Each structure stands twice: as C-alpha cells, then as structure tokens.
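LAB NOTEBOOK - FOLDING QUEUE
OPERATOR: T.R.
BATCH SIZE: 2
PURPOSE: Compare the predicted structure-token outputs for two unrelated chains run back to back under identical settings.
PRIORITY: normal
REVIEWER: second-year student, initials M.K.

ITEM 1
FIELD SEQUENCE / FIELD STRUCTURE:
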Amino acid sequence: MLLGLDFDGTLSPIVEDPSKAELSLETQDIIKALAAIPGISVAIVSGRSLQDVRGRVGIDGLIYAGNHGLEIHGPGLSYLDPTAVKARRALGWLAAALTKGLSQITGVIVENKSLTLSVHCRQVAIEDRETVFRHVQAAAAVAPDCFRISVGKLVYEVCPQAHWHKGSAMRWIDGQIGRQNTLTLYLGDDRTDEDAFRTLAHGITVKVGEPCETAATYHLDSPASVREFLYWLASLNQQGGQP
C-alpha cells in the first residue's frame, strides 16, 4: 500500500502562524509504526518545502514530497521539477515585490519556498484580504506564462506553470515503488489536495475537515480523527488483517 498524507490540516492542526505548526508525538509514533509494516510505503505530500516538512515530521525513511510535489525525496527516489527550477529567479523577484507591496498590511506573511510562494492571510484582517489577493494577482500577472495562483485555506499559492501537482507526485511515487497492484490511500484537507483526489480516483481518498464538495470518497473531521484512523489502520496488521 502507498499511504499519502498531507501535513497542515491533516496530520497537524492549522495554526495562525505556519512556522508554529508541529506534529504530535502520538501521530509521529503511529506513522513510524505504519512505515515499519512490510508492504506499506508512507509519503508525506505537502505545500511546504521539502526541507521544511521533513524537519517537522522528523521521521527517516519516509518519502517526502514538498512544494505540492515539485520536489520529492525518499529511499531510492529523487525528483525535482525542471519547470519549477527555471522559474526560481522570477519567483524570487515576485517574492521581493510582494514583500514590499504588502508591507503596510498587518499580519500578512510572504513565504518564498524556492519553488513556490505562499502568501498567508490567516492573521490579516478580513477587510484587508481582498487587497492582498489583488496584490498577488498583479504581481503574478507580470509573468503569466510563468506562474499560476491557487487559493487555499487563507493562503494564496503562487506556483510555476508546471503540469505537476500533488496527484502527479503520488502517481510518480507509485510508479517508482514498482509493486504490482498497489493500493493507494490519500488523506488531505485543502484545495490543492483535490488534484490528488481526482488523480487517485482508483484508490481510497479521504477529505479531512469541514464537509464540503470534494472529489474524495470518504471524510474525516480533523487531524485527531486522522490519528485515530491511522491507529486503526496499523491495528489491522497487528490482528493479521491486510491494510
């Protein structure tokens, strides 16, 4: 089985300051237990940079896909999207322009993740969020062939115009693992996870968070529910079941 897990909002609760997000020791332990089961590969698929999410999860031997799958690393696996690499310099310019242009708006966080850019609005006053979005649109419009904007949970993501997303990353990882008839299970909470839900329609897909329209087949309420589900999944192996 290939188990794909988003980080923020799925494994770890959403927090106002993204730098404060943490993985609980209980969740870390159950992921370790799952990864140790023969036949299960665990992939952490996040909008964070690969270095960032790997540091927060802190488990060796997993597959990590950062920047919405644009960079992937794991045992015997390595991928770096060439389109994203070419756009790095332009992304740096865009990050600098947004940091300057949004400097008067309280609470906004511009995060350059090298391959993608996040503009966080969770701490921005409601009446200022539309202004932030207009700034992001204007900055990205300078190079429309280079960048696209996606809207997440109080975050605007600026990504290169690469034909690659979380679903592409999961499909690539599945192909690299090389097992026959691998069951794919993916859990995520945000709009960018919908790409994975659609791509992995043949597998088991789980939307985390408030009920809403989704391409996922199943639903869990929160990261706490995800942890309980992962405990159950591991217990199947202990009882002789097949995950």
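ITEM 2
FIELD SEQUENCE / FIELD STRUCTURE:
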Amino acid sequence: METPISREAIVFEDGIPPKNKLLMAVLFLKALLFLPFMKSYVKRHLPHCSRIDFVPGFMFYYGNIHARNVGFTDTFILDYAPVYIGENTAFGWNNIIITAMHDACSDFSRVVAKPVIIGKNVYITSRCVITGGVTIGDNSIIAAGSVVVNDIPPNSLAGGNPAKVIKRIETPLHGPVFPPSLE
C-alpha cells in the first residue's frame, strides 16, 4: 500500500528543529573560518573585479572575470574566455557559467571558448547554466533551472531549456539587489 502524498505545508511553530539549528550553526562557523582566506584569494586572482560578494562554494578557473558590485553565491565559472558582468547583478544558488565547449564536429579534443556578457541589474536565479557566446541584456531575470544558449534581450524574464523570453519587464530592476561586502 502506497503512502498518500500530502501537499499541505509543514509549519514549525517553534522555529526550525534543533537538528537543523546545529547544522546551520556548523555551516555558519565554516563560512566564518573560510571567508577571510577566500576574500584575500579572490582579490589576488580576480584583478578585474571590485566590490563582489560570494559565499563558500564560489569557484572560478583563470580569473578572467570582469565584474563590479556583483553577488556570486556558490556560482561556478569556467572562464577560459572572458566573462563580463555588469554592476548590481546577483546570482542565486548553484549557477554555472561555461565559456568553453568541446567541438562536437571534431574528435572532441578541440575546445572552443567564447565570452559571456551579462548586463547591469541582472538577476540569475538558481541552478542556471549559461554557455559561451551568450549576451544577457540589462535588467533581465533568468528563471530557475534555465539553460541559456542564446542571447536574451534587455528587460526580459527568460526561462526554460533552452531559455526563451517569457515576458518583457516593464519596470526595470534598480540599484543593488544585495549588500556589497567585498571592497
């Protein structure tokens, strides 16, 4: 006999369970111990960046990233070609930017890298993949789980696999969408 599936919300009246509080405390302490080292490492290896914010899990390969006032969270960037990110852009969790791909027409030993350009005031939600050669216009939002393989025009909400414009954004995002913490 199968267990019925409940669609009702679970409410924790007294806050999160103690087990989860302990886990969150450990993760918080890990971040406190990790961030001072990571802050100096990022400053040394990303010379084209200023005022960026990140959490443990943020990774990049070459430091070929050009950004200012950007929140990365745990974004992974394979930056064989340059990655240009406009001001006041924020990334949700588990995003990937891949500038290089293996050439499917050859024996897969050839790698082609193309730059990625992300405009100003862009919000990349969670678990998005952005491939090389893509431009995402200013004031755009990329929906969760999207795979961006084509250009996205400015002032757009885009989503899907491959990502397509779902609708135009009439009122653009303004100002920083996160508190900058790395000067």
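REVIEWER COMMENT (ITEM 2): Confidence is low (pLDDT under 50) at residues 176-183.
FOLLOW-UP: none requested
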